[in-house]
Amino acid sequence: MAYTKILMCLVLVVVFTASMSEARKRNTTHIQFYMHDTPGGSNPSAVRVAGQPMNSTSDMGAMFGFGSIYVMDNSLTATPEPNSTLIGRAQGLYAMSSQENEFSLLMTLTYNFVSGIYNGSSLRIVGRNPVMSEVREMPVVGGTGVFRMARGFALAKTHSMDQINAVIGYNVTVIPYY
């Protein structure tokens, strides 16, 4: 009799634990958008705020040399076209972080969503971006609104580049906290 009670209790614990772990599984959200990074031209969306002295505005070595830091407020759109639906802004900093023969950035930025189902929410990205790699992965380290305390990753791929201006496609996978 005591053996049966213990066995029944064990079965109940196993069933309860299995149902709790199923309930704790989180939905994964996938978001795709395009960031328009425009450090050149008459209306730049990224501005150099620190770095090596430049001899002229065409001094690309100093402009993108080790230690150069940019502040950005780039548009996020639904498609690569500049006049596409604005879904948000990418705001933050990026710094030229490699002294070697590669073009690598340290990025700390916030994707602020201004339309659609994520309106008012944001995601935080902090990580290394080896720009010349075909696909770059950076971690999602948090967020606000529906993405509060989120984690995940962002895959970046350059869609197009015109001298120093670029359109970067992002595929972001987010696991929300709730």
Overall description:
With 178 residues, the protein is α+β, with helices and mostly antiparallel strands. Helix content is 15%, strand content 48%. The protein is elongated, with a radius of gyration of 22 Å.
Query: Structural class, judged by helices and strands?
Result: alpha+beta
Low-confidence blocks of residues: none
Number of strands: 9
Radius of gyration: 22 Å
What spatial form do the alpha-carbon principal axes imply? Answer: elongated
Helix percent reads 10-25%
Ends distance: 43 Å
What is the spatial order of strands in the main beta sheet? 1-3-4-5-6-7-8-9
Average the pLDDT over all residues and give the rounded result. 85
What's the tally of helices? 2
Share in β-strands? over 45%
Topology diagram in text:
Elements: H1 2-24, E1 29-37, E2 46-50, H2 60-63, E3 69-77, E4 86-96, E5 104-113, E6 122-130, E7 136-144, E8 151-162, E9 165-175
Antiparallel strand pairs: 1-3, 1-9, 2-3, 3-4, 4-5, 5-6, 6-7, 7-8, 8-9
